[in-house]
C-alpha cells in the first residue's frame, strides 16, 4: 500500500488543494514525504453529501452485513503489515511494541463491535402488544427500536494514532450503530491515517456498501474540522483531545440551528488516593507501580495519574522516596509532536514556580530534541486547595503529590476536584471502612473507580466506562471505550399500529432477527 | 388540604417574597386567591443545597424504597380528592373528564416507574469477570452500573397541569432514576402545583427520605427558572413548553462552566400523510377522526395534527369537505391561559393572510372571553415549499392541509420538514408499497410513526417514544414519556477490582438485588 497524500472521499482519492498538511518525524522534527493536500469546503460538502446519501441504506444493513464490514476493516488493517507500524513509529515517536499492541487493540475493538452488532441487544427492541379490549381506551400496538442518529464526524486523536483515530473506538462504535463516518485525520499522523483510511475504504467496497459510508479528510487549518461540526448533515461528533479543542467543538455544536451532541474526551488528572494501611504495608510497591503508570507512553494518556493524595507522615515519605528513585531512573521519551513536547515543558516549568510546590524528582535528562523529562512534584493540602492551576491537567509524565494532614482533608480535596475519567484507591483490608465514604464522592465525579491499580490500560470490554463528568468528557452520560460506546450514536423510534410488512425486521411479529426483546416491560431472551 | 401560597423547600413551607404569582381563572381572566409568593435567590439556593445534600442518600435507596415512595406519591395525589380536580379546572379551563383522566394517567405513570425501579433493568448492571491468566496482560474485574446524574430541575407545563408538571413524567422518571427534583411550578396553575407538591412532600416524609429529595418553587419572573438551570448543583433539566422557552434553557445550559443536558419538549406540527387508497376508501371517516384529534383539549397538545399532506384530487376534496363540516360543528373551547389564547388568535389571523392559503372552515364562534375558534386551512405544495412560516407550530386547534400534485411531492415535502414528535400515515393495503419509501424519511425526523391513527393520546408504556429530532425536542436521543424516559437521568460508572464489601449491591458477587445482568456481554436473567 502506497501513501499518496490524497483525501479519501467515498471511493475516490482526491487531491486536496486547501493548503498542505505535512507529517513530521516526531524524533527529529523534520518533515516527511509526501505532503497531504488539505480538504476544501467543496471536498467537505462532497463527503457530507455522500454520507447523507449513504445513511438510509447503511443503517438498514443487516446485523450480519455490518458485523462483516467491521471484521473486514480489522482484517484489512492487519493486511497492511509492517508498513503501518513503521510509518506510525516515525510520525508518533511511539515505540514498536506499543504500536503493535495498539494495532491489536484496534483490531479487537472492531471485532468486539462486530459481536455487539450480531448480538443485537443495542437495538433495544421493545414490544407493547395491542390491547383492543382495554377500557376506557383500547391500547395500540407499540414497538420501539433504536436507529442510528445520522452521519458522524470523528476527529483523530494525537495520542492514539490507531485506537482513537481513523478506525478507532469512535469510528468503530459509530459504524456499528449504523452511522456513516467522516474522519478528520489528526495532522500529527496523516500517513498512518491514509493507510488505515484505505483499509476502511476497501472494506466499504468489498462489502458492497454505499461509498459515502466512509470518508477521510485532512485539514490544513481549522476550517474543515469546524465545518464538519457545523454541517447540517452531521448529527454527532466524536473527539479525543484537549480541553480547549473539545469545548470549542461543544460550543460550535450547541450554536447550530439544530444542536448536536459532541462526545469529546478531554481532560482528567485521575486522582490516586493513598490510604494509611496500604501505604504502611506497601509504600514502595505502590510507588513503583505508580511511576510505571506515570511514565508509560511518555505519560501521554488521558488516564495518566496526574495527582496523588496521601495522608502525610513517614509512610508517605517512604512513598515519595521510592517514587522519586523510580522516576529518576525513567528515561526521557520522545513525545508525539513538537507542540505537545513544548506544552509539557512549559507546564512543568510553571508548576516548578508555583508557591509551596517542591520538585521531588525529575526523570533522566533528555538527549533527543523532542524528548520529555518526567517530573514529580509535592505540595501541601493548603496550596492545592487555593490554587486552581494545580488542578489542571499536564499532558505528559508529570504528577503532583499532595500531603494531606488527615483522611478528612483527603476527602475534602476529592470534593474540590473537577470531573475525572478515573479515580484510584490504594487500600488494604484495614482501610476499607475509611475508604467507604469516598465512594459516593468519587462516583459523582469519575467514570471509573479502581482499587489498587492505575487508570492507564483501558480494557475494551462490556463493563468499561471511559467517560466521566465534565470536563473529563463533554457528556458524562457516555463512554468512548467498550461496547456501551455504541449508545452514543442511537436514538429511539416508536412504531404504532404498523402492518407487519412495513415494520423493520427488528420489530416484526415473527422476530426474524432473533433479537432479545422487552415485551410489556419484561425482557425475553431468544436463547 | 389547604392552598396557602407558600413555597415548599424540603419539608418547610416558606413564604416567597420575590414578587407574586397569581392564579387566573382561565374562563374569566379574573385572579383567584391566594397569591403565591415568588421564590428569592436565597430560596433557590436553599432548595439546591438541600437537593445536593440529599443526593447521595436518595440515590442509594433500595429499589423497593424508591418504588414505595413513587407509589406513596400516587396514593397521596388520589387522596387529595376532588379539590384537586376543581382547582385545576378553574386554573386550566380544562373540563372535569379530561382532568380526571389526566390524574389517572399521572398516578399510573408514577406506578409504572415504581415497576421500572423494582425491575432494576434500568441499572444496566454489567460484569466482566477478572481473567488473571490472560496473556499478555491479565484482565481486571470490571463491573458497571448506572447511577443518577444528580439533582434535576423540572419545569411545569402549561398544557398538562398534572401529567407533565409537579409530579408528572419528568419528575417521576427523575425520582425513579434516583435524582432529587426541584420543580418550578408553571405560573398558570400554582394552586394545582401546591396541592400536588404537598402530596410529594408528605410522601418524602412518610418514606423517611432526605427532605431535599423534593422542593417546589414559584417564579414571579424568569429569575428562578434561569437560576435553576444555571446552578452548579443542578445536573439536568426537564421542560415541556414553547420552542422559545426551550431553546433559551438549552443556551443557558450550554453556556454553564459545566454544561448539562436539557430535555426540552418543544414544538411539533405532527404531519398526517393521506395516501390515495385510504383516501379513496375512507376520506370521510379519516376526516372525522382527524378533526376529533385536532380539537381535542382545544388542540393544546404537542402531538396535535397541525399539518395534513394529501395527493390532490376529488378524494382529497371529499376529505376537506368532511373535515370542514366536522370542524364547523366543533364548539369553541376555553384555552389554558389568556396568553395562549392570544397567541393562538394571532397565529390564525396571520395564517389567513398568507399568500395562497385559503380558510377551509372555522369552528363555532367563541362565546366566552378566552375561547378559541378552531381553524382549518388549505394551501398548495408550492406555497408550503416556499413559506417557512407555514412550517411553524400553531399551539391550538388549527391545521393546514397541503394539496400535493403527486405522491412524489408528498415525499419531497416530508423531506423539507423539521424534526417532529409524531408522523401519521393513513394507508390501506393498496398503499403499502407507496408508503414504504416514506418510512426512512419519517424515521429520520420523527420519534413516533403511526399508521391509521393520530399522535394525540400518548400511551405511557415501555415502547413509547415521545421525543424526536430538534426542534421537537432538545435531544432526539430521548423520550419524555414511557419507561425509557428514565434513561435521561442516568450515567454509567465502572468499578475495577473493588472488594465485594465496597461494591454497590447492584454489582456484588452474590447479586443481592436479584438483577438481570450482562455478563461478558451476554444478558443473564434471574427469573
Based on DSSP secondary structure assignment, what is the total number of beta strands of chain A? 23
Strand content of chain A: 15-25%
Q: Kindly report how far apart the N and C termini of chain A lie.
A: 44 Å
Looking at how many chains there are and whether they match, the oligomeric state comes to homodimer
How much is the radius of gyration of chain A in Å? 25 Å
Give the overall silhouette of chain A: globular
Query: How large is the count of helical segments of chain A?
Result: 15
Biggest protein-protein interface?
A-B, 80 and 80 residues
Judged by helices, strands and strand pairing, the structural class of chain A is alpha/beta
Point out poorly predicted stretches of chain A. none
Kindly report the average pLDDT value of chain A: 97
The major beta sheet of chain A can be summarized as: 7 strands, mixed
Helix content of chain A: 25-40%
Largest beta sheet of chain A: what is the strand line-up?
Answer: 2-1-9-8-7-10-11
Amino acid at each position: 500500500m502506497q501513501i499518496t497524500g490524497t483525501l479519501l472521499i467515498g471511493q475516490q482519492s482526491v487531491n486536496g488543494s486547501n493548503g498542505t498538511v505535512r507529517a513530521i518525524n516526531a524524533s527529529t522534527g523534520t518533515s516527511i514525504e509526501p505532503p497531504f493536500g488539505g480538504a476544501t469546503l467543496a471536498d467537505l460538502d462532497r463527503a457530507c453529501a455522500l454520507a447523507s446519501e449513504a445513511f438510509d441504506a447503511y443503517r438498514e444493513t443487516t446485523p450480519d452485513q455490518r458485523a462483516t464490514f467491521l471484521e473486514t476493516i480489522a482484517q484489512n488493517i492487519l493486511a497492511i503489515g509492517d508498513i503501518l507500524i513503521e510509518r506510525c513509529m516515525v510520525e508518533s515517536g511511539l515505540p514498536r511494541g506499543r504500536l503493535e499492541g495498539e494495532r491489536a487493540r484496534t483490531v479487537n475493538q472492531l471485532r468486539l463491535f462486530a459481536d455487539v452488532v450480531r448480538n443485537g441487544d443495542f437495538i433495544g427492541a421493545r414490544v407493547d402488544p395491542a390491547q383492543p379490549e382495554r377500557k376506557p381506551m383500547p391500547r395500540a400496538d407499540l414497538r420501539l427500536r433504536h436507529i442510528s442518529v445520522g452521519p458522524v464526524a470523528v476527529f483523530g486523536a494525537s495520542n492514539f494514532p490507531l485506537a482513537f483515530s481513523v478506525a478507532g473506538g469512535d469510528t468503530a462504535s459509530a459504524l456499528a450503530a449504523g452511522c456513516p463516518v467522516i474522519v478528520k485525520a489528526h495532522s500529527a499522523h496523516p500517513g498512518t491515517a491514509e493507510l488505515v483510511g484505505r483499509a476502511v475504504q476497501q472494506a466499504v467496497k468489498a462489502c458492497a456498501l454505499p461509498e459515502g459510508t466512509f470518508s477521510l479528510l485532512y485539514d490544513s487549518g481549522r476550517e474543515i474540522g469546524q465545518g464538519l461540526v457545523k454541517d447540517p448533515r452531521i448529527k454527532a461528533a466524536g473527539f479525543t483531545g484537549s480541553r480547549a479543542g473539545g469545548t470549542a467543538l461543544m460550543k460550535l455544536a450547541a450554536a447550530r440551528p439544530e444542536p448536536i451532541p459532541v462526545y469529546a474526551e478531554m481532560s482528567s488528572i485521575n486522582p490516586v488516593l493513598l490510604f494509611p494501611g496500604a501505604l504502611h504495608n506497601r509504600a514502595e510497591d505502590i510507588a513503583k507501580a505508580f511511576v510505571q503508570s506515570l511514565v508509560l507512553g511518555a505519560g501521554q494518556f488521558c488516564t495518566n495519574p496526574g495527582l496523588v493524595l496521601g495522608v502525610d507522615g513517614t509512610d508517605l515519605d517512604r512513598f515519595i522516596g521510592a517514587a522519586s528513585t523510580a522516576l529518576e531512573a525513567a528515561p526521557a521519551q520522545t513525545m508525539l509532536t513538537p507542540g505537545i513536547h513544548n506544552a509539557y515543558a512549559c507546564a512543568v516549568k510553571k508548576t516548578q514556580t508555583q508557591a509551596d510546590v517542591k520538585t521531588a524528582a525529575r526523570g533522566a535528562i533528555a538527549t533527543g530534541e523532542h524528548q520529555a523529562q518526567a517530573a514529580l512534584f509535592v505540595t501541601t493540602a493548603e496550596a492545592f486547595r487555593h490554587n486552581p492551576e494545580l488542578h489542571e491537567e499536564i499532558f505528559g509524565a508529570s504528577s503532583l503529590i499532595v500531603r494531606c494532614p488527615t483522611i478528612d482533608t483527603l476527602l475534602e480535596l476529592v470534593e474540590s476536584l473537577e470531573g475525572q475519567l478515573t479515580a484510584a484507591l490504594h487500600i488494604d483490608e484495614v482501610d476499607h471502612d475509611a475508604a467507604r465514604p469516598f465512594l459516593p464522592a468519587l462516583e459523582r465525579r469519575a467514570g471509573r473507580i479502581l482499587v489498587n491499580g492505575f487508570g492507564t490500560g483501558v480494557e475494551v470490554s462490556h463493563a468499561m466506562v471511559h467517560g466521566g463528568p465534565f470536563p473529563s468528557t463533554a457528556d458524562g452520560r457516555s463512554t468512548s471505550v467498550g461496547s456501551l460506546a455504541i449508545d452514543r450514536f442511537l436514538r429511539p423510534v416508536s412504531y404504532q399500529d404498523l402492518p407487519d410488512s412495513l415494520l423493520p425486521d427488528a420489530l416484526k411479529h415473527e422476530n426474524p432477527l432473533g433479537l432479545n426483546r422487552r415485551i410489556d416491560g419484561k425482557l425475553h431472551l431468544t436463547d
